[in-house]
Amino acid sequence: MKANSTYKVPQGKLLKISLEYNENKELIDKISIMGDFFAYPEESIELLEKELKNVSLNENILSKKIQSIIQKYDIQFIGLDCEGLVKGIMMCLK
Amino acid sequence: MKEQWRLLNTGHNNAFVNMALDNAILSANREGKVPPTVRFYGWTPSAISIGYFQSLNEEVDIEQCKNFGVDYVRRITGGGAVFHEKEVTYSIVVPESHPSMPKNILKSYSRICGAIIKGLDKLDIKSKYVPINDIIANGKKISGNAQTRKENTVLQHGTIITDVDVEKMFSLLKVSNEKIKDKLIEDVKQRVTSIKHVIGKEPLFDDVANALKVGFEEEFDVDLVKGEITEFEKKLAKSYEYARFSKEEWNFRR
């Protein structure tokens, strides 16, 4: 399955998610995290996208996973946060 | 004696050269080969730059760009799509460890934008910084800015709008909902201004650059000394231009 979402992060920027997922197992197959936000270092967004492959599309699991990746790569977002990312991804399923 | 930084006025270049030069200055400063640098430049032909995280196909009408002869390029900085036509663009490259540069990224946006605000003040334009990355005059955006940090070196570049053609801009940018395009155009007209709009005439590029120069000198308490791009930077810029910024793989990577 393929789906897209556009989500305006409160007090932040416009997040655009492009998602490919396995409907039966509800796992992320491929994700692109796009938008006019800032992330430091910039290249970490590609690492984040890679690490989200095969992660469950369950709000809690997704949130914990994203938080752990943010810590692992010491990612600093401006105009975006973990909560916004989870919201944007979950919106793809609606 | 005040600390001396390098001042570059590279005039108008195409989008790939412009982004390659900023990247080359960043790399050269990181390697300790050039001092902190403030650069002023313009864009010929007109161009759209998109933020590092944006999708070119999603944001830009490529066919329309080709029709109008407008370049498009992905920046190494985040942020949004910008139509560069009538504007003065600046970049500043400074080591992260410089005492004038706040470690906190938002604070450093505010600090660098302080130089732009002081510069605009020289043109009798009162403006203020609005987080995350805008400067507004009379409540409307007059400058957008974007920053990256690579290996302990800060690069921030931004645009000071001298005049704006919102209709042309929207003919080149894609909107998520075509049905409300007219309303979006009206919204942006209400939210974006230019030096021409504020002071009643389109300023000369060099007049704006000179005012901004003084703004940077005052904000950072330095002397900006006119300099040149070094041979090292020229070579580096060529390689960035050909291997990165003019490449489809880079520009369409997201």
Give a quick precis of the structure:
The complex is a heterodimer of chains A (94) and B (254). Chain A is an alpha+beta fold. Chain A has three helices and five strands.
List keywords for this structure.
heterodimer; A: 94 residues; alpha+beta; Enolase-like, domain 1; two-stranded antiparallel ribbon; B: 254 residues; alpha/beta; 8-stranded mixed beta sheet; 3-stranded mixed beta sheet; 41% helix; globular
Largest sheet of chain A: 3 strands, antiparallel
Strand content of chain A: 25-35%
Oligomer: heterodimer
Order of helices and strands of chain B: EHEEHHEEEHEEEEHHHHEHH
Q: Tell me roughly what share of residues is in helical segments of chain A.
A: 25-40%
Largest interface: A-B, 21 and 23 residues
- Count structural domains of chain B: 1
CATH superfamily of chain A: CO dehydrogenase flavoprotein, C-terminal domain
- CATH superfamily label of chain B: Bira Bifunctional Protein, Domain 2
CATH class bucket of chain B? Alpha Beta
Q: What sort of overall outline of chain B do the alpha carbons produce when their principal axes are compared? A: globular
Instruction: Extract low-pLDDT stretches of chain B.
Output: none
Second rung of CATH, namely the architecture of chain A: 2-Layer Sandwich
Radius of gyration of chain B, rounded?
Answer: 17 Å
Query: Strands across the major sheet of chain A, in which order?
Result: 1-2-3
Percent of residues of chain B in helical segments? 40-55%
Mean pLDDT of chain A: 96
